[in-house]
Amino acid sequence: MMREIGVGLIGYGLAGRVFHAPFVELTAGLQLRAVVSRDAAKVHAGLPGMAVVPDVAALLARPDIDLVIVASPDDFHADHAVAALKAGKHVVVDKPFATSAADARRMAQAAGDSGTMLTAFQNRRWDADFLTLRRLIAEGRLGEIVHFESHFDRWRPVPAAVWKEARAGGSWLDLGPHLVDQALCLFGRPDAVTADLAALRPGAPAPDWFHVVLHYPGRRAVLRSSKMAADHGLRFAVHGTGGSWIKPGIDPQEPAILGGAAPGGPDWGLDPIQGHFTNGVDPAQSVPNERGDYRLFWQALADALHGKGENPVPAAQAIAVMEVLEAGMASSEQGRRITLA
User: Fold this and answer.
1) Which residues form the Gfo/Idh/MocA-like oxidoreductase N-terminal domain (predicted)?
2) What is the DSSP letter of 144?
3) pLDDT tens string for the chain (341 positions)?
4) Strand (E) or helix (H) holding 149
5) Using CA atoms, how far apart are residues 179 and 173, in angstroms rounded to an integer?
6) Helix H segments across the chain?
7) DSSP letter string over 201-213?
C-alpha cells in the first residue's frame, strides 16, 4: 500500500479553508493531520476533530508531518516555507509565492539544500477556460497568437477592511500571480513588462486596478483587473492568425466550494458558459469547454511525493512569476518599460 503523506496546514483563512483542506482530504496518498490557527473553533467547524496547533514551530516539531502547506499572510510565506524546508518537510506555498524575487530564490535554495520538494499552488492552470484555451492552441485552431488578453475583474466598489486589501502591490500581488502564471505557461518568459497599477476606489489602501503588458516578439499579452467592473463578464480575448476566441464567465470551482459544495461529483468543474470562435469569415461557433479540476494539482503532487511523477509547479516556475510581478511593480512606480534580464 502507498504510504500516506502527513500534511500540516499553516493558516485557515479563505485559502486554507477553500482551496487546501477540502482537496487534501480527497486526495489519495495525502492526509491532513494538523492546522496552525489561533481560532480552534473555526477550524473545528469545518474539520471536526482536527488537531490545531498554536504556531509554526509546534507544527514543524511533529514527526507525522511530511508536507506543509503555507497559507499564511503573504509577508510570512518565505520565512514559513524556509523554516519548513529546513525542518525536512516538503512545502506547498499559496500565491503569491513570495513578496520578492529574492525571497523566492531563497526558498528555492532552502529546498535544494534540504533535498525536499517545493511547489507553488497555481490552481488556475486547471481552470476549465484555461484548459480549453490550451486545447485550442494545441489544435492549431487559433494559428499564431498575436494578442492575448486575460481579465480578472470584479464588482467590489467598497474596499473591505481586511489585510488583503492593503497588501503591498494590491491586487497585482493577489490576482496577478494567476494571470502571469497562465501567460508564462502559454508563451514563456517575456522580453519586457509595462505596467500601470492604480487605486481607483475611494479610500482604497492599495492598488485595486492594473493593466499590464507582457512584451514578446510579434505578440502582446495584456493582463487586466479591476474591482470597479459592474460588468465583469470577459475572461479571455485571444486573437491569432487563424481566428479569435472570446470567453466570458469564470471557472465555477471556487464559487461552488464557497457555496458549500465538496469537490467532485458529475458536474464538478463543468463551466456552462461557452466561448466563441470566429475565423473572420464564417459565423462564430460555440466552443465546448474542458472540465476544470483543481484535484489534478493535488493528485500530481501526491504522485510526485511518492516518486511517481514530476513536481506539478516547480520552484523555478514560481520564481519566474515572481520576477514578472516584481518587474510590473517597478514599471508602474517608474513609469517605464522594464526589460527582463
Assistant:
1) 5-119
2) S
3) 568 999 999 999 999 999 999 999 999 999 999 999 999 999 999 999 999 999 999 999 999 999 999 999 999 999 999 999 999 999 999 999 999 999 999 999 999 999 999 999 999 999 999 999 999 999 999 999 999 999 999 999 999 988 888 888 999 999 999 999 999 999 999 999 999 999 999 999 999 999 999 999 999 999 999 999 999 999 999 999 999 999 999 999 999 998 888 898 899 999 999 999 999 899 999 999 999 999 999 999 999 999 999 999 999 999 999 999 999 999 999 999 999 98
4) strand 145-151
5) 10
6) 14, 21-26, 40-46, 56-60, 77-86, 101-114, 128-139, 163-166, 171-174, 176-187, 253-258, 295-305, 315-334
7) STT-SS--EEEEE
pTM for this model (two decimals): 0.96
Question: Which residue type, as a one-letter code, is found at position 207?
Answer: P
Query: And the C-alpha cell for 85?
Result: 524546508
Distance of CA 190 to the CA centre of its chain: 19
Domains of the chain: 5-121 (3.40.50.720), 124-292+324-339 (3.30.360.10)
- Here the cell at position 162 is 481586511
Instruction: Cell numbers for 7, please give them.
Output: 500534511
How many residues would you count in the chain? 341
How many other C-beta atoms can be found within 10 angstroms of the C-beta atom of residue 142?
A: 21
C-alpha cell at 224: 487586466
User: What is the side-by-side order of every strand in the sheet holding 51-53?
Assistant: 51-53, 30-36, 5-10, 67-70, 90-93, 118-120
CA distance 142 to 247: 14
